[in-house]
Amino acid sequence: MIFNKIALKKGSKKLINAWAFYDWANSVYSLVISSAIFPIYYGLIFSEINFISFFGYQIKNTAVISFITAFAFVVVALMSPILSGIADYIGNKKRFMKIFVYIGSISCLGLYWFELQTIYLGLFFYFFALIGLWASLVFYNSYLPDIAYPDQQDIASARGFSYGYIGSVILLLINLMIIMNPNSFGIKGSSSEASMTAMKYSFVSVGIWWALFSQYSFYFLPKSNREVKVTKDIFWNGYKELKLVYKELKNQTKLKRFLPAFFLYSMALQTVMLVAAYFGE
After folding, report:
1. In terms of Cα–Cα distance, which of 220, 223, 31, 202 is closest to 133?
2. Which of 14, 77, 105, 135 is geometrically suited to a Cys-Cys bond with 211, CB 3.0 to 4.6 A?
3. 3 in a structural domain
4. Quick check: helix, strand or coil at residue 60?
């Protein structure tokens, strides 16, 4: 017997929960990798080396990770408007969201090989993990008007934040328990070596957690509000969709003031969150 999935109506509690649950899935990256464990791991592998030979240049180790982070944000900022325009045009945000979720989660698995000897490979995975996270959030956030009515959106957003905090803390506590007692979990080696290995396992756990729990959101989130055949002109059509948004924006005085202010606020906040731990050492 084949069971067909029933499309959930906009505003339904189950649909809002499914949308908010993506925060449970992705927030582990922000806590485990961006804030708590990866910066410590990064500092440990460079504990005796202050500079990295990066494409022929000697660059301070904290500067390298900052440059990679900044470059990832520039790429996301440049491609997100076009990608969101394409998603609006073909009416399939879920496809793009899935692509970036899997890019990000697979890259987290790749961070297991983040070592001095494989620094280029490690930075490659770090870069694409960031791309996957922030690009997926573009499409995730754009779903909010599709799944909730205006009077429900504040509650839905708050629910997403709460799920994110709870899920990320749970995984962080599990990883810290393993890192502090690696031999008890079958990780061999000296105390420091075993703890370092446990840290690498924590990056793998983020990738698995992110991909696994995203499936609940993918299952219930609507595929599209319209279906347009993908052609070779898809990027041009995405650009035209973006132009329509820009024309509408010119008539919204308050929104024109809000967006630059929010951009500066958001960039400052994200900069502090992403690089403070490296300098805090």
Report:
1. 31
2. 105
3. no
4. strand
The per-residue pLDDT for 1 is: 40
Tokens of 184: 């008890």
Nearest to 32 by CA among 129, 101, 103: 129
| Greatest extent of the chain over all pairs of C-alpha atoms, in Å | 64
Q: How does residue 3 score in pLDDT terms, banded at 50, 70 and 90?
A: very low
Does residue 8 lie within any of the structural domains? no
Q: Give the span between the Cα atoms of 139 and 83, in whole angstroms.
A: 9
What residues pair up with 57 in beta bridges, in sequence order? 54
Contact 37, 199 (CB under 8 A): yes
Helix axes 253-280, 234-250, angle to 10 degrees: 110
In a domain, 4, yes or no: no
pLDDT digits (tens, 9 = 90+) for 23-74: 999 999 999 999 899 999 998 998 878 888 777 788 888 888 888 988 998 8
